[in-house]
Design goal:
Layout lengths: L14 H17 L7 E6 L6 H13 L5 E5 L7 H4 L8 H5 L5 H4 L1 E5 L2 E4 L8 H5 L2 H10 L5 E5 L8 H6 L4 E7 L5 H13 L4 E7 L28
Parallel strand pairs: 1-5, 1-6, 2-4, 2-5, 6-7
Antiparallel strand pairs: 3-4
Helix pairs in contact: 1-2
Length: about 240
């Protein structure tokens, strides 16, 4: 496993944001208290909603309870977690799923106390296909033996099917939206896709409510996605 020698401390979380995440943490723990699967998919309806920052912060506050937590960057087209935690992305999820590394080799241990991460790895030509393989199912099963909670950062639902694919391998999905960004129709579309696939929607996180500050990192353009599942250009 990889240690954290090449990582740096991230910026401290504002108090009111941290408290909001602690509330979300409590709600998730309650929602998952009766199920064995503790893998949680985090996604959004569209880009620039703050879903990757939400994934990182939620995994961090969960780890503060001194339970073992791992965060997986499953957004192999537009990865972010290695930037948030300032670490290398040479070996990661794509390396594991392509059979070029064991998961033990890709885990970055103690990126924060009680928090390990698996970055996305180099962008493969077929991310959706890799996520739908038995190898991904096996990875989550193996990780569940060592970790109490598994958080999975995934691409926006309305652009790519990855989050829907992983929803069937998880306890449920947390949908992230940013106030003033997603429209009602976009959110409804994302929810409908999850419901159609039989996904368990654990809740909705609304970012940047009544705030002019940029609490959550900007996701940037999804230029790499090209044409999505539904035929609309995502560039």
């Amino acid at each position: 496993m990889i240690d954290k020698k090449d990582t740096k401390k991230s910026n401290p979380t504002p108090f009111h944001v941290e408290e909001a995440y602690k509330t979300l943490r409590t709600n998730l723990m309650f929602a998952l208290s009766t199920v064995d699967n503790k893998a949680i998919v985090i996604s959004s309806a569209r880009q620039e909603e703050g879903k990757s920052e939400t994934s990182a912060r939620l995994a961090t506050v969960m780890a503060e309870l001194e339970v073992k937590v791992i965060l997986i960057d499953a957004d192999m087209r537009k990865p972010t977690q290695h930037k948030i935690f300032k670490c290398s992305n040479q070996v990661g999820l794509s390396t594991i799923l392509s059979g070029n590394a064991d998961f033990e080799e890709a885990i970055r241990e103690n990126i924060k106390p009680n928090l390990d991460i698996i970055t996305s790895g180099k962008s493969p030509p077929n991310p959706s296909e890799l996520l739908g393989t038995d190898r991904m199912t096996y990875l989550l099963e193996e990780l569940s033996r060592y970790y109490d909670y598994i958080f999975i950062d995934t691409p926006p639902i309305n652009l790519i099917t990855d989050a829907v694919i992983l929803s069937g391998k998880s306890a449920g999905v947390v949908l992230v939206t940013r106030h003033g960004k997603s429209t009602y129709n976009e959110l409804t579309k994302a929810v409908s896709r999850l419901e159609f696939s039989g996904a368990n929607i654990l809740g909705l996180v609304v970012n940047a409510v009544k705030s002019k500050s940029r609490i959550f990192g900007r996701y940037g353009r999804y230029g790499k996605y090209g044409y999505g599942e539904y035929g609309k250009s995502t560039k």
